Amino acid sequence: MRVSWLFALALSLYHCGGTQASLADDIVEAINNAKDCNSCHELLVPLTGLAFAGDSAFSSTIIQVCKIMKLEDDDVCEGLVSEQGPIIAHDLRSISPFGQTSTKLCEVLFGLCQAPAVNQFKFPLPAAPTNPKKWTSQGRTPFQVAHFSDAHIDRQYTPGADVQCTKPICCRNYADQAGQPISVPAGALGSHNCDTSTGLAESMLRAVSTQGNSFSIFTGDVIEADTWLVNQTGVTSELTEFNQEMQTLISTPVFPAIGNHDTAPVNSFPRSTTPEATSQWVFDTQASGWSKWLGPSATSAVQHMSGSYSVVAPGTNLRIISMNTIYWYRVNYWLFDSDDFQPDPNGVLAFVAQQLQVAETTGQRAWIIAHMSPSAVDALHDQSNYFDQIVQRYKNTIAAQFYGHTHVDEFAISYSDYNNRIAANAVSILYIAPSLTPRDGNPAFKIYDVDPDTYEIMDSRAFISNLTDPIFQTNPQWEQYYSARQVYSPAIPGGWPANASLSAVFWHKVTEAFEKDDALFQKFLELKTRGFDMEVCAPGDCKTNAICALRGGRSEDNCHVAQAGLNLRRGFGYIREESRHAPNQCEGAHLGTVFSQMPGKMVGL
Ligand SMILES: *[C@@H]1O[C@H](CO)[C@@H](O)[C@H](O)[C@H]1NC(C)=O
Ligand SMILES: *[C@@H]1O[C@H](CO)[C@@H](O)[C@H](O)[C@H]1NC(C)=O
Ligand SMILES: *[C@@H]1O[C@H](CO)[C@@H](O)[C@H](O)[C@H]1NC(C)=O
């Protein structure tokens, strides 16, 4: 497999090299030799040479490779590489091919290096109080909060268009498919190969509104996965449109976070140390679209803190801190354009710590929300580690954390000692919400029952709409799919008291139950994708690694191992691979996926 791929790559470079012929020869030879981390660094030398020939020379070479290899449809090759190629060329011109940043680039682009060890850094934090406030439930009736995520609304979704296609999302009238017979016509509202229709999004927002929730959190990704086509004008208008729809259809406040798709090119959030580019237009757009819910001071934070903000939910003593974690996201290629140690890109960590200190000082509890969880395979280890230090310091103040990004219904746990991950050391719980987009499961949202005194989660209930239900295409029904307390508390030895919250300790005990009771673990896998295309993960390495990932609140501890070839497609927003078929989840069960993606590596160049 690998040999024929390299042979075709070599041919393509010989044919298309033109004036860059000797450079192309060098690149081919280096790719041929790139079998481990050291040789990946050597490969970066000729690639850097190509980058110095200019963005267009760099991108056009890679576009040719992509097309000849048939890695994607021609239009997808052109769009993806034209948008992202220049960022990687900029990186290569800015860093040493042999430094730590290039090791990270080798990990992200080729999977040939493992992520380097964390750069030890003590994040500056004020001392903890000697007498921390104790938060105790008064046993009052919980209130409800909705959590929805990963909307991925495709405004070009076309009923009747083919649900089968060769592009990352289908159900669209693509020019190069015109006149071809339709194999399966898209229904009015949705299909698993497609992103969310506007009708499905409206139906979900209405369902959220009828649940009587006090407020909602939305953990990002408004834009559909047509990542080869996105531009600033289109993204700005789609962000604005969804902000208006949320305001119209949900009567209570929504507290959003910024997702990696909510910009153009996708994932692209340059740091403030990169003067060549900026995402300020995203922050300005969202500040104006969110101001009604956030008020003046948090709205100003969105603009000046790179999309992060902090706000007290109305009528509560709860501070919601929304972080832009895309500055820690390993396929935000702008993060690899410097060899300088930058522990806190754009000051997001310092802002979060400062807001937690405000909460502690004023006797408030806090929720952390963001798109990508710091536990994710995609979270850079350094920033995840420094964030974890903040969590340890403010563990009494943080009641829970909420994320999205993976499209599946899961969770992660932080520990005071990652070498000894036991119930007594479990300090913080990260709830990761399922997606609205049907790509990776039935469309879903969560309703949390929240204790009004501690702001801890008493129950987490998923609502889904079932795509295979015949009524779905005309009048989608949203029904409670499961209650976490009902499913999991009977599995905890001695049970779980009705008045105790679903805390980090509770969820640690759930992972212990998974170890002993495989049927319960398989149930968790079914719930993850809401009964659709269930993951295969048997006892043994797959299950052990999956449980390790649940106990990996700090990404360096999630047992993920980089593998050659698995990496690049996710850089363009193919969430399916990163969430479902990640090697830490199901290695072996999806060997076919590994091979089929070997060529996919080159696309990301
Ligand atoms: C930008 O994207 C929109 C779709 O969101 C498209 O209609 C428009 O033609 C694109 N503009 C350019 C200059 O490509
Ligand atoms: C639950 O109720 C029991 C009995 O009233 C009490 O001892 C315990 O402290 C309560 N637990 C919580 C978390 O409120
Ligand atoms: C969805 O509906 C189909 C057909 O009625 C049924 O077989 C399936 O179990 C349902 N899935 C879920 C998750 O409820």
Brief descriptors of the model:
Purple Acid Phosphatase, chain A, domain 2; Sphingomyelin phosphodiesterase; 39% helix; metal ion binding; hydrolase; globular; six-stranded mixed sheet; Sphingomy_PDE; disordered N terminus; alpha/beta; glycoprotein; disordered C terminus; 3 domains; 19 helices; 605 residues; binds 2-acetamido-2-deoxy-beta-D-glucopyranose
Which cofactors or ions or other ligands sit in this model?
A: 2-acetamido-2-deoxy-beta-D-glucopyranose
| Helical fraction | 25-40%
Mean pLDDT: 88
Count of the separate structural domains: 3
Helical stretch tally: 19
- The gyration radius over C-alpha positions equals 23 Å
Under CATH at level 1, the class of the largest domain stands as Alpha Beta
Q: Structural class of the secondary elements?
A: alpha/beta
Question: For the largest beta sheet, what order do the strands appear in spatially?
Answer: 3-2-1-10-11-12
Shape: globular
Name the CATH superfamily classification of the largest domain.
Metallo-dependent phosphatases
How is the main sheet built?
Answer: 6 strands, mixed
Beta strands, count: 12
Q: Identify low-pLDDT runs.
A: 1-20, 566-605
N- and C-termini, Cα separation: 20 Å
CATH architecture of the largest domain: 4-Layer Sandwich
| Percentage beta strand | 5-15%
Signal peptide: 1-21
Disulfide bonds: 37-113, 66-77, 165-170, 171-194
Binding site for Zn(2+) 2: 221, 260, 371, 405
Function: Converts sphingomyelin to ceramide.
